[in-house]
Design a protein that fits this description.
- The protein is mostly beta strands.
- The chain is about 5% helix and about 35% strand.
- The protein contains one helix and 17 strands.
- Strands 5, 10, 11, 13, 15 and 17 form a six-stranded antiparallel beta sheet that branches.
- The longest helix is centred in the middle third of the chain and has 14 residues.
- It is globular and about 65 Å long.
- The chain starts with a strand and ends in a 9-residue tail after the last strand.
- About 5% of the residues have low confidence.
Length: about 270
């Protein structure tokens, strides 16, 4: 990979080998209650998601797991001073909208199809040094909230990454995801393992050129199964929703494409 920035600086990456990922054998979901939270807390009840896979017989395999959740957007904008339809966003006007006399958060429904996208912000990593060629079970992936009884779309990606990328991510995890246990030894964040400056080989660069083999699997968590007598802890949206005269009328906000929002419905999306 070669990059030339607008200021003329040039960067390049070292070659990386693409390593195939074994398939995901099984994905499991289990309803679980965390008693360290009150039952009114959304963290108290949910579904723990884990997976099983069979490690490659080749030594020195390093794994990373990513997940993506997509759900229909409830509100496309939440504004305290009205919605600006020209700029497709909340108004920054210092004057209140007509009929409003104080700051009040108002939620605007979307003017069409819109979906929110979320993914894991933490590093989920594994080295096969002690597991070479074995079946690996119960790798924790995420916890699905019991906010409703609707189906929960979850796409899971299993990656095989180079050793130096694994070590780089692990160093970042050690700094940013410390658990505070006896085994949580502070580490110094490493700089890029495979991106270099052509003009200044000693330049310290944060980031990495990722090359990986992957396997993906999409599941729908059925939040009606195994919940016993527990009821969903509905999500609370601050502010109020405008009551529309009819579903086809009234002020609505645009769905603005971005990293965390899209108008495109995922293939085979279910609700």
């Amino acid at each position: 990979m070669n990059i030339v920035l607008g200021n003329g600086k040039s960067y390049f990456s070292s070659p990386e080998k693409l390593i195939a990922s074994p398939k995901i054998d099984n994905i499991k979901t289990e309803f679980a209650v965390k008693n360290n939270y009150p039952l009114t807390d959304v963290r108290s009840v949910g579904f723990d998601v884990s997976l099983d896979f069979t490690d490659s017989p080749k030594p020195n395999q390093f794994y990373q797991w990513k997940w993506t959740h997509v759900e229909r957007t409830v509100y496309c904008a939440s504004c305290s001073r009205g919605y600006d339809y020209f700029f497709s966003g909340c108004s920054s006007n210092i004057n209140f909208p007509d009929g409003q006399t104080e700051v009040e958060l108002i939620n605007y429904k979307c003017d069409g199809n819109c979906f929110d996208i979320s993914s894991n912000s933490t590093y989920n990593l594994l080295s096969d040094n002690l597991l070479n060629g074995q079946k690996v079970t119960n790798i924790p992936i995420t916890r699905v909230p019991f906010e409703s009884q609707s189906l929960y779309y979850l796409k899971i990606e299993q990656r095989v990454i180079p050793q130096k990328i694994y070590q780089y991510f692990r160093s970042i995890k050690g700094v940013t995801q410390g658990s505070g246990t006896l085994f949580d030894v502070p580490t110094e964040t490493q700089f890029s393992p495979n991106i270099f400056s052509k003009e200044n080989p000693k330049e310290r660069i944060i980031g990495a050129f990722e090359v990986f083999g992957s396997q993906e699997k999409t599941i729908y968590v059925d939040r009606n199964i195994g919940t016993g007598n527990y009821t969903p802890i509905n999500r609370v949206y601050p502010g109020r929703q405008i009551i529309l005269p009819s579903p086809r009328m009234g002020p609505k906000a645009a769905c603005v494409e971005g990293k965390y929002r899209t108008k495109k419905e995922p293939a085979d999306f279910k609700e």
